[in-house]
Amino acid sequence: MRNSGSDLNECMRRLARNRRYFLGVTACLALGLGANATMFAVSDQLFFRPPAAVQDPGQLSRIYFRERVPVVGEITTDLASFPTFTDLRTGARSFEGVAAYHVTMVSEGRGNQATRLRVALVSSDYFHLLGVGASRGQVLTKLEGPLEGGQVAVISDALWRGRFGASQNALGQTLAIADRLYTVVGVASRNFTGIDLEPVSAWLPLDVAATDLIATGFVSQRGSRALSIVARQKTGVSRKQAEDDASIAYRSGRQGFPGADSSARLIMAPLSRQLGPRPRPEAKVAFWLAGVSVAVLIIAGVNCTNLMLLSTMRRRTEFAIRTALGATRSHLARLVLVETILITTFSAGAAAILGIAGGALLRRVMELDEVPLGLSALARLCVFVLAAGTVVGLLTSAPLIWSMQREDLSSPLRTGYRAGLARPGLVRGLLLVGQTTLTIVLLIGAGLFVKSLRNVRAMDLGFDAGSVLTVNVDFAGITARTRSMPDADLLYERLVSAVLGVPGVRSAAVATSIPFQYTSGASVAIPGADNRSLPREPALLSIASEGYQQTIGLRIVDGRWFARADYRSPAVVAVVNESMAKAYWPNQSAIGRCVVVAEPQCRTVVGVVADARQTRIQPEHRSQVYLTGVADPRLSARYPRTLVIRSLTPRAIVPTVRRAVMAIDPALSYVTILPLQDLVDAKSRQWTLGATAFGLFGVLALVLAALGIYSTMSNLVSERAHEIGVRVALGATGAQVVRAVMGRGLAQAIAGIVFGLVLVRTVGTQFVDLLFGASPKDVDVLVLAALVVGAASLAACFGPAQRAFRWDPAAILRGD
Questions:
Q1: Please, is 469 exposed, middle or buried when counting C-beta atoms within 10 Å of its C-beta (0-12, 13-18, 19+)?
Q2: Which residues lie below 8 Å from residue 557, measured CB to CB, with a gap of 6+?
Q3: pLDDT of residue 644
Q4: Where are the alpha helices (DSSP H) in 553-649?
Q5: Is residue 687 classed as helix, strand or coil in its secondary structure?
Q6: Of 684, 699, 618, nearest to 446 (Cα)?
Q7: pTM (predicted TM-score)
Q8: Are 118 and 226 within 8 A, CB to CB?
Q9: How many CB atoms lie within 10 A of CB 209?
Q10: 10 Å Cβ neighbour count for 534?
Q11: Torsion angle, alpha carbons of 283, 288, 293, 295, to 10
C-alpha cells in the first residue's frame, strides 16, 4: 500500500508538471469516450432500457403479424383489431396472458383550462400482465362495485403531482375527455410511464373509451387495426411453440374475413419496437452511429497510445537512470499503469459529462427527450464510461509495458543518442493507416447524410409548408356540437372567419386530409370503363374548402380549383392530382371526365394539381382526389378536419390565433396549433439525425486522426533524430529531410484513404436505404472526403517535418 501511494503521488506530480501532455492525452481519450457515451445514452433508451416498474420484462413479447394483403402484398405490422385481441386472449394457450393498448393524444378539460394529454386505452388485464401496481388507489382490472366497466382512469405519478399537487384527494376527481368524465381511481407506480418511448399520463378502459377515441363500433370491427398487443408466454414453452399456437388462433379468428391470408403468421419480439421487425428509421441510423462511435474510440485509443509512446520515449534517460539505481522493470511498468489509470479516470469523468450533453442533443433531434433520463440511466451511463475507459486504458498502456519488458532500458546511458524506447515498426504504421481508413469512412458517411438532407429540403413536396399553420380543434363538449354536415360546416365557417380577422393572416381554409398529419382513402370508379384495369389501391381523399389550394400552396397543372359556386351543390365537381389523372385517363385530359368517389353520383373533374406528399418525404405517386363535400352528412362526420392558415409570420401569430379560436365558444377543448413545417421536419428526422451525428463524429474523427498523424510523425522524427543528424552532416538538404519525413506520413495517409474508399464501396449497400438521393458511389462526396483527409494529413505531417528541418546536426550528434 505504501508503494502504491508513493507511485500515485509521483505520477500525479509528474502529470502536474507536464500539463500539456496530460491535457492532450486526456482530451483525446475523453472525446473518444464521450462519443461512445453519447451514443450509449441514446442506444440505452432505444434498445436496452427496460420499461420502468414492469416485472420480468424479458418474459414479455410484443406481437407482430406477417401476412399477405390484397393489392398491397406482404406486410408486417404490430397493430391488431379488438376481435383479434379477443381471439388471442381466449385461443392462444401458450400465453399466460395477453393485453392490448392504444396510445393517443386527447384534449382534457374545457376552454382556457384545457390541456393536451397522452393517454393509453388498455384492456382490463394490462396492469396485471405487466406486474405494475398502484402507489395509491387501484389499477384498472376487474373492478368491483359501481366502478366495474365504468368511466374510470388511472393517472401517472407525474400527472398526480403536477395536476393534483400530490394531494390524497386526487382519487375521486374527474378527467373530462371527449364527451365523458373519467373518475380517477388510482395512481400508477411512480416510475411507470408505459412501455413505449413516449410517456403516458393516464390509462383508460379500452372497452369504454374506444368508441370516443378510436372509432365508433371499434370493438366489433375486425378490419380496424389500432391496438398493440403484448403477451407473456408460459414457463416451459418455447418461443416457436408459442408463435405456432398463437398463429393458429389468429388464423382461426379471421376465417371468412374478406382478404384473410390462410398462411398468416404471428411473430413474438422484444417489448422495444426498435428491436422488432419494424424499428423506427431513426433507430436504424442510431445503430450505425453506435458503430461510428466505436470507430471514433479506436482512433482516440490509437492516438493516446502514440502520445504515451512519445512521452515514454522522452523519459528514456530517466528510465535508464532508475534502472541503474536498482529500479525493476515491474516497478517502472507499475508507474506507467498508475499514470494510465489517472488519465483514464479524468477522461471518464469528462466523457460522462459529454455523454449527458451529447445524448440530450441527439435525444432532442430524435424527439426522445420526453422520457426523463433517470438516476438508473445515469448510473448505467457512468458504469459504461468507466468500463470502456478501463478497457481502452489497459489496451493503450499494453504496448508501453510490453516494450519496457523486452527493451534494454539502460541503452541510452551507453549510446548517448536519441533512440526511442519502441522502434518504429509495422504495427504503428498499420494503426496509422487504420485510423485514416476509419476517418474517411466517417467523413463519407457524414457527406452522404448531409447530401441526403439537402436533397430532402430542396425537394418539391407539391405544397408550400413554410408559411402555413395547422389548427386542430376538438369540438367534444361544445354546446352546439352535432354530427350533421350543416352544423359542422357552420362551425368551421366561424373558425375561418375568426382567424381571417387576425393581423398577419393572408388566407385560411379547412380540409379533411392534411399532408403528414391525417389521410383518408376512398374507392374510385369510372362509369362505363373497365374498372378492373384501374389501380386497386384506394385513392387519398380530401374534402377541402374554397381557399385550400391557395393556402396550402398546391400548384394547378390543368383546369382550375374549386370556385365558390361549386359549394352550392357540393357533390358535383372534383379535382384530382397528376398521378390519378395519368393512371385513370392515360394520354388524355382529365378535365371534364366523370369520376365516382365515396358516393354513387358522378363528379366532373374541373382541375388537376401537382402531386403533394401526404405520408412520407419519398415520392409516392398515389392517386388523390379533392372534393367540395359529400351529400351524406353521416359520411362527412367521419372525416376529421383541420384548419390551415397562411401567414408571413406563422409562429409569431400562434397566441393570437389561439385566442381567436377559443373566443368562438368557451366550451372548446384544447386547440393544437403547429406549423406545417414541423410536420415536414418530423418526416425528415432520420436524415437530420444522420447529418448531425455523422457530421459531429466525422469532424471529431478528423481532428483525432490529424492529432494521431502529428504525434506519430513527431515520435518518428524523435526516434530518427540521430539518423537525421548524420544525413544532414553528410550533405542532405533541408528539403530532402522534409520530403523524407512527410513522404512517410503521406504514404500511410494515402494508403488509409484508398482502403477507406474501398471499404465504403464494399459495405455501403448496407445503409443505402437510409439515404435520400445519395449513394456510396457518389464521386463528389468521395473526392471531397479524400481531399479533406489528405489536407489534414499534410498539415499534420508538416509540423514534425519542419521541426526536423530546424535541428542542429552537431547538437544531435553530440547527444544534446
A1: buried
A2: 578, 608, 609, 610
A3: 93
A4: 578-584, 633-637
A5: helix
A6: 699
A7: 0.74
A8: no
A9: 25
A10: 16
A11: 170
Q: Where are the beta strands (DSSP E) in 171-281?
A: 174-177, 180-188, 202-205, 228-233, 265-269
Question: Residues for the chain: how many in total?
Answer: 816
Q: Residues near 350 by Cβ (< 8 Å), separated by ≥ 6?
A: 26, 27, 30, 33, 34
Distance CA 185, CA 203 (A): 11
Q: What is the tens place of the pLDDT at every residue in 244-280?
A: 999 999 999 888 787 788 889 999 999 888 778 877 7
Which three-class secondary structure state does DSSP give residue 75? strand
Helices (runs of H) and strands (runs of E) counted in the chain: 24, 23
Hey, what's the cell of 781?
462526396
C-alpha cell at 264: 398468416
Residue found under cell 433507430:
283
Is the Cβ–Cβ distance between 697 and 446 less than 8 Å?
yes
Q: What are the distances in angstroms from CA 343 to CA 36, 433, 469?
A: 17, 25, 53
Tally of CA atoms within 13 A in the half-sphere of 353 that contains its CB: 7
CB neighbour list of residue 679: distance below 8 Å, 6 or more residues apart: 465, 470, 514, 515, 516, 517
E strand or H helix that includes residue 495: helix 485-500
Strand-pair category, 73-77 with 134-137: unpaired
What's the burial of 810, exposed, middle or buried (CB within 10 Å: 0-12/13-18/19+)?
Answer: exposed
Residue 101, pLDDT > 90, answer: yes
What's the pLDDT score for residue 575? Answer: 94
Query: What type of residue sits at position 569?
Result: S
Please count the other Cβ atoms lying within 10 Å of the Cβ belonging to residue 481: 16
Helix axes 426-458, 734-763, angle to 10 degrees: 60
- C-beta of residue 583 within 8 angstroms of C-beta of residue 534: yes
Query: Which grid coordinates belong to 760?
Result: 465504403
What's at 510, amino acid-wise?
A: V
d(CA 739, CA 661): 74
Say which residue the cell 374478406 belongs to.
258
Specify the 3-state DSSP secondary structure of 167: coil
**Coil, strand or helix at 26:** helix
Backbone angles phi, psi at 403, to 5 degrees: -65, -40
**What are the start-end ranges of the H helices in 151-238?**
157-164, 206-213
